[in-house]
């Protein structure tokens, strides 16, 4: 396919660099000179870290055609002066997403529905699981299902296979949709900034296993979920989104889990949406999220 | 004052005991036989602990007069068969509340407003602080203000004075409205089930000091507060109520604190309301709250 | 099947009657005398209407067997003295639910997921639609799909067919899961208290057609949904549950609709859960909902 | 006072104009050329109306001094080419706010607390009421209180006096904090975009008088409040913020009102904060709000 796209195409540029005067102008001047409309712009300066973040949605004027190569080459000239890291995405922005699951299917079901209806603008080239249980669900959606069992001994080998699939798919994002396995340190690093996990508690409360049981024992009055980027440090990855619902004393662990399932689905899909719409910056152990 | 009250008076009986058949009937049969209307009834059985809780609001029929002494004597006969712990409160249910503060005045201001307008049905015989700052606010509301400074050395002595005031007032409840001091183990025990603290995080996340700074460092997307009964184990007391608001990367600790102030006020006043309306049962390290 | 059930069975009795002393005792005394445990009890007196409502979950003692016929006969004797309307449900409480849809599938998909996983304790003997679009979804779940097109002229005939299916199924509940057709006055009356509709606005705001467009034009900052019992008066039926999410100026009608879809699913499933758990009383044009 | 301010000063420029390429660049290029840092930037294009909105927070570089007159003169040259309407505000951004009240004091009390503690960065040169009741509260905060009774006959005269006070104060904003009087069409027009009202329902539901009673009659499950700019068309003004809380059947009108008071305070203070931080654009009958 040629790099020359139709004129109604829209684009998203995301960039960050050390903060100094002119960081906005680098982007906005360039886009103006090239004859683009800006649809939406968000910027943020972290004054503690003295770091600048910007996200711009823009579209070509009717008389302009988009030459990606030329755009990138020219923009890099300006950007490099500011030590700017940047990415350019162009519509239709269809991300390739690999989903990893275990036996719980609520998050998978929710993601597949959003995929099927176009609510999430994604392709799903692969679903990977350490159990065979959810194959039928994958099949009904016409998605290849890889059953890769894991044991303590076979973990390196299994992860190698998983990573191979991710690579072969050209995946932009890996979603751990209740995968229930801790990734190895090596795997976590390889997937840094490209893998989102859903944890079924309001981190940092109730880290580790069986958070709904922990929450029940503590007698909490809010149950929640946390979507975060996978990091080497378990349950300490950069938080993307968190949601809650109220509960009371009458919620046993299975009731918390039932209410939590809805929250997990919403929290995870929001995080995924932000990621595929290029709204998230990974920033040390935190995120900057220009959410809609 | 006589024990005979006007016929439009309402009453609240709260009781708990080991679960077995007939625990509801003990209360409802008695009230029926005595000719009372039941306005509202809540019960709960903790099936893990096999324990029963009940709260009943009732009112005398128009031809009945209320003799508290006789009521209690007769009810105890039935209740004792079931090893039932119970309390009876009669309208106008005006609780005596001692408020303890430090320098932050948002929770105090909120409680005083609710007191002044009757939104919270309380008397405030004393405000106690280790600092003189909030005296003027107390004075404007016509409430005695006790300035009792505290140091590591004078802590036992100061706490003794505090406890004396609480005793002298006949306080039903002590509210630590951002008191910012850890009560001694001895004091915590004395006030067990009678002292509510507001912690400015979603416990068990961010225990201890400066939770808004901890929350900022962790990059959380929800800021919250927790009202709990004071216990010997700091920040581990039984949770009564929890509330949250959404935040994002642009919230520095002072912004979290600003948003948090509103949440602290709401969370604390809800817990206080539940307590003075006899809606809370202390149950090991948890609470049963029959919230409206 | 015999009326004698296993001893671990639980039951729910719901009742309402004019308020007077002894209305609770009617239920609780009877249950005690029959040797039942009460798991949970909720009551409410509408003091404006002077009407009493009660819901009790109870279970047989280990040595007792449950004879439904005998229970009902004996209870009716007491209940009739109080002009009490009452119902008895016994576990496993599996309700028969007919779902009606048009072309939008988000609510249907959500209900089917909850059905499939047992999150909603229901059977779905039929899905009825005026369009053929969602047949495949029904089929995958093994549920009969009735395609009954409707025009202005064929409406009486179509509704007769629909009603026949509902009757034949022995349905306890009909869910209009974005059916997009206004039921006739006659049909509404036949289904009174047995049909739940989801309206995609916070009623009474934005009644009628295209509520997300109306909401957009008005510039609202919260988008919501309302689940209500179907009544003869369009969009005026008794409200069961309402939920919202925050939005801002950047939400065009299609964005409101997208966010609204999640809210519609949650709002509808909550209403359905309350109904099948016998937590709702229809009370004139309102509901009393003893929600968990 | 000189137009030359200290170098640590920050500024906010807000602007809107018909959408076309270069609208962002107009602002960002100018600020860059003048040597300013941009702290935060938000823009939005209403593609239905083809209109552009932008808000930029910026600060002078350490070696630059701020000459307001010169800034405005030069910026206007560029802005006028784009038919841009714009405003410039400079720290400390202290807005002058006149508050109008009747007898309900919860919103006033909340605003005064936020004023007193600096949470809202405002001066309050006057509180105006048609009743004398809240004078003491005003006095304690050292704020002049104008008691201007109103009758059908004296309304034009009273409004003239009110407007005179607003003019004399140089007020930037008028807050109707439960003023309970409908402003005349003339007065509404004079205060267009400068007066915020709090309505105690989720508009457009329950317009007009006694919304909590209307809400009770309708049996709603969410109670809410709406802050909006005053317009000639009662309860139809542009919405700024809306908040809700869940309620159930047990809430009588007075209970809805009690819960509503907290929501009204939060909703109003959020709208006021957005206004004084120059985050709101009035846009026909809607608002664009770049909320934090």
From TrEMBL, chains A, B, C, D:
It catalyses: (6R)-10-formyltetrahydrofolate + H2O = (6S)-5,6,7,8-tetrahydrofolate + formate + H(+). It comes from the Bacteria. It is an enzyme of class 3 (hydrolase). Residues 96-271 form the Formyl transferase N-terminal domain. Pathway: Purine metabolism; IMP biosynthesis via de novo pathway; formate from 10-formyl-5,6,7,8-tetrahydrofolate: step 1/1. Its EC number is 3.5.1.10. Keywords: Hydrolase, One-carbon metabolism, Purine biosynthesis. The keyword Hydrolase applies. The active site is at 235. PANTHER family: FORMYLTETRAHYDROFOLATE DEFORMYLASE, FORMYLTETRAHYDROFOLATE DEFORMYLASE 2, MITOCHONDRIAL. Catalyzes the hydrolysis of 10-formyltetrahydrofolate (formyl-FH4) to formate and tetrahydrofolate (FH4). Belongs to the PurU family. This is Formyltetrahydrofolate deformylase. It comes from Psychromonas marina.
